[in-house]
Amino acid sequence: MTAPGRRSSTFTRLIRHGFTDPTASERLLDDDSLAPVRHDPVLLDALGATADPDLALRSLVRLAEAQSDDESRHEFLRTLVAAKPLRDRLLGVLGTSEALADHLARHPSDWHVLYTYEATDLHPGVAEFESGLAAADDPDALRVAYRRCLLTIAARDVCGTTDVAETAAELADLATATLRAALAIARTAAPEDAAMCRVAVIAMGKCGGHELNYVSDVDVIFVGEAVDGVDEDKAMRAATRLASHLMRICSDTTVEGTIWPVDANLRPEGRNGPLVRTLSSHVAYYQRWAKTWEFQALLKARPVAGDRALGDEYVRAVSPMVWQAAERENFVPDVQKMRRRVVDNIPAGQAEREIKLGPGGLRDVEFAVQLLQLVHGRSDASLHSGSTLEALEALAAGGYVGRADAAQLDAAYRFLRQLEHRIQLYRLRRTHLVPEDEADLRRLGRSLGLRGEPVTELQQVWRRHAAVVRRLHEKLFYRPLLDAVAGLAPGETRLSPRAAGQRLQALGYADPAGALRHLEALSSGVTRKAAIQRTLLPVLLGWFADSADPDAGLLGFRKVSDALGKTPWYLRLLRDEGAAAENLARVLSAGRLAPDLLLRAPEAVAILGDPKGLAPRTRDHLEQEVLAAVGRAAGAEAAVAVARGVRRRELFRTTAADIIGSYGTEDSPAEPDPGALVDRVGCAVTALNAATLAGALRAAVRAQWGDELPTRFAVIGMGRFGGHELGYGSDADVLFVHEPREGVSEQEAAQAAVKVVTEMRRLLQLPTADPPLLIDADLRPEGKSGPLVRSLKSYEAYYRRWSLVWESQALLRADPMAGDADLGRRFIEMIDPLRYPVEGLGEDSVREIRRLKARMESERMPRGADPTLHTKLGRGGLSDVEWTVQLMQMQHGWTEPGLRTPRTREALAAGHAAGLIPAEEAQILDEAWVLATRVRNGVMLVRGRAGDTFPSDGRELVAMSRYLGYESGHVGDMLDDYRRITRRARAVMEDRFYGG
User: Fold this and answer.
1) How far apart are CA 474 and CA 489, in angstroms?
2) What would the DSSP string read from start to end of 483-498?
3) Are 810 and 697 in contact (CB under 8 A)?
4) Which of 71, 80, 400, 886 is in the most buried spot, having the most CB atoms within 10 Å?
5) How buried is residue 224: exposed, middle or buried, by Cβ count under 10 Å (0-12/13-18/19+)?
6) pLDDT (tens digit, 9 = 90+) per residue, 522-564?
7) Per-residue model confidence as pLDDT tens digits over 747-768
């Protein structure tokens, strides 16, 4: 008897053997059911060797208690202690799987299947499993027999008799035997149906690939044919009934549990298609309608049950189409779509625990291997395997994947699959989530042989393997391409030029030969530059391939590297700043404008590596920088060259931020609010143009008058410039206003003001490497016929006497941009009564605005333009929204201060806040305006020149769709959405502007 306050020797031994609840376990050892073996040291040692000694002991007591009588119990316990194979197998399972312990408690004599130790028990195949299921003549008996066979697979697995690949193959073989048994039961239940048709069951997915999980849907396709003399329709109905019964036998849940769901959704047309088709119907579908992912799925097709001749015939018929899939017209966009990792459906809190779909998970490996099989399997039959690990080995042997990369990926995949097996084995539930509970993690770690600090070690090993997969996932595609052209991997079997070209073409490169030349130029040699670029290029090539124009991205990278490759900071930036390389890849492959801006001054690439580099600079900050640079310059032309250089740099910053915000990166998702992107671009381009004008004004004044002009001078922004809504291709609409200083005559002041304006325009349009800033002053009084610049008094006199309603409307967007701030403020005060007339607009003025709008719609639309896609003048486009908002501002601005803004979206929101427009209608107008503005910005980004409608070139359209957030292959959806959104906006406009 143990003295009070002291631990028993058993308690201490339990702790030493790895029990986490020694008190409860000590009570279990004292249970009468274990009396014959309670003190046997062999038992305790064996329990301590399991993944979860506490679970193993609890389950052992349940199994002992479940024996039918004392004699059976004594026989079981004697055998357990005497037979080491049984002890290791049984306790190994009991310490790993609660679900199989439940099965043994319900069927206590099934422990005998773990006692036999024949040679065939080491590596059973389909025949052995069929023998194990042979006595099952009804669904429940089949479920029990299936679990009995599963028990033997799990025992070999946890004891290390089989590795993860062999275990997965055994599970697939057991599934094959089970499908055959279920079909036999279904045939026996409906002999008339069985007599009318031939049915073949084709395994797909992991079952077809001989790599099944413990708990997984078993994917199948059913093929049927009529027996001679039977009507085909009747035979197909009979085959469908047999197939449906087979699925129910396997999928239904009873007191004996379930086997697994049988999933036939990979069949042609999925759930909408017939469950069973004839062979000719399958072939016709795949020839005409199948998508790339369906051929990818057929990689693993394998006949497993039913009519073997029909199954073999099916595989022979579809196999050539599988290996020709890479030649299909839509293969590239399909691959780009499939390569884009879809983790949106994974709850945010689970993404890091996902070992299948998460970053660095099983699907990354499987997809990479399958894609390489599709690309190269058309000319190399050695790659025709449904097994991921076998295919990976064949890819390495053929030089399609580097041997070292393949070995690392093989090890990572095996670990992740074994981890998945152990997670599922515990309760035989379908899951791919690593548990969070410490006890579960401890059991998992110990089951994988991690016995020191199992939880910590498990996390470390898992993260290490996931990181390997993440790192090699892209490298797997592209590293052999570099080895093929650089010739720097001695002993490796290299890709042939033809195979390298095939791979590049499959991944979206339109000019594979040109791409290979660029790769050779970038990666050949033994310089530090070449070495760093060989490290970067595998990942960069993947990012380029994820864009609409991979060729342009690769060419742009070569040009930037040629320009900067000898500067240490550039290579260091790309190597050390993870975001910089991805940002550069996105920018270079998204269109023409951003790369053109970058290549004019490649040092701007440093912006992409600065964590705050993409944030827009404020107008004050830019103006201060420009004016300081102008002050240091030797002359007016040099001063404005510096100002235009700042503008070019800031345009690049803005375009880069826009592209990266629209595409997103691996670490940060795309900006979900397109309105925020539009506002950011509008404000940034407005600010940098205002700063450039301020610099040009200072340079023009200094060149002739020194520090002070004889007249006060201000630049008033108009149109999109005044509304802070400039796009990349917008001109700067302005008015020039001056006011003579004291003692200066009107004539002298006017002459000075005209000279300044003329010089500013000349300086800003000088031919240089920087994009020009075009100034448009046509909105001035009297238009092109009026003086280019007026005094404040002249403007006041003109507007008081001659102003037309359209001029008042144009002034709604006036905002001072450069020059004398006080003069700009007084100009705005002077025009406010015109913009926001007291009592609003009269009926005549409203009629005139409507007449002008109707005339503009009929006369200014370009000939041949599609009015449903023209962003400025088309149906529901910018003009429709802006005129509707501006009419509201002129009618109600005198009473609603919120409407007194030059910005369209602000005015629209203020109109809703004031109750002048319902929320739904305001939202419709806002959505259309934002979309049309983004399209205009996107056209400039993609084409490098301004445009008001979607481009006609196919590749440019794809780039537009990617910029607007659509996945590859959805150009039609983009155009349909644009028409739908703008059609709704036009309906609101007609009601609000024209009064219905």
Assistant:
1) 18
2) HHHH---TTPPPPPHH
3) no
4) 400
5) buried
6) 888 777 778 788 878 887 887 888 788 899 999 999 998 888 8
7) 999 999 999 999 999 999 888 8
